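Human:
Focus on the backbone:
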Amino acid sequence: QKRSALKDYCPGYYDPNPGGVVAAGESYEHTNKREVEEEMGIKGVDMNHLFTFYYEDERIRCFGDAWDVVYDGPLKLQKEEVDSVHMMSMREILTRAEAGEKFTPDSIYACREYVKLKGFPEPLGPVVEPTIEK
């Protein structure tokens, strides 16, 4: 997804991963389920924890948690969060980021860690174009 130009962090950048801030007293698991539902409209599916990571650069310091989710239904994206949607494979995401296209750096870090752990994922079926809520 291409982040809204109104976002404080990395406006207009591609962001291949849903994510958000953990609220006080909230677990990573609860945050993951909440963010995946809020940002993508996915709920009621199994989510498997993969790894926890720390990322830091000149703009951000964050702890993150990576989860594996298999879902083959429609995506429902938030207009306030997303300007547009671009379906890409993991290989394409990393290739385009390495070529200098603007991707959120913490998400690219998480994608690289995912590939180290699990390799490049294969598409599981046909691409379903998401809708963006108005």
Q: What stands out?
A: The mean pLDDT is 88. Helices lie at 28-40, 90-98, 105-118. Residues 95 and 101 are 9 Å apart (CA to CA).
